[in-house]
C-alpha cells in the first residue's frame, strides 16, 4: 500500500500543480501505465483487470472511493498540504 501511496501522491501533486482534476481510476491508470510499480507486481500483468482497463482507457465507476484506504490517504494529503486541492472559480451567477 505504501508503494502505491508514494506513486499516486506524485500524480496527485502533479495534477494539483496543473490545476487538473481526474477521477480516481485515472490516477491509477497513470501510475500503472507509467511503469513505476512494475518491479513490484505480485501477479502476471496479463492477469490484471486494472492494467487491461488502463491500456484501453476504459471508464470505471466505483462508488465508495471516499471510504477507501487511498481515499483516506488523499484526504490526509489535502489536510497536511501536500495536495493543495485548489478549487476552480464558481461560474458567475445569472441572477
Rg calc: 15 Å
Largest sheet: none
Beta-strand proportion: under 5%
Question: Approximately how much helix is present in the residues?
Answer: 40-55%
Question: Can you tell me the residue ranges where pLDDT is under 50 for at least 5 consecutive residues?
Answer: none
User: From the helix content, strand content and strand pairing, which structural class follows?
Assistant: mainly alpha
Q: Tally the beta strands.
A: 0
Order of helices and strands: HHHH
End-to-end Cα distance: 48 Å
Mean pLDDT: 86
Overall shape: globular
Give the number of helices: 4
The gist of it:
By secondary structure, this protein is mainly α. The chain is built from four helices and no strands.
Describe the structure.
The protein starts with a helix and ends in a 16-residue tail after the last helix. The protein is globular, with a radius of gyration of 15 Å. It contains 4 helices and no strands. The chain has helices at about 1-20, 25-35, 50-55, 70-80. α1 packs across α2 and α2 packs across α3. With about 100 residues, it is mainly alpha-helical.
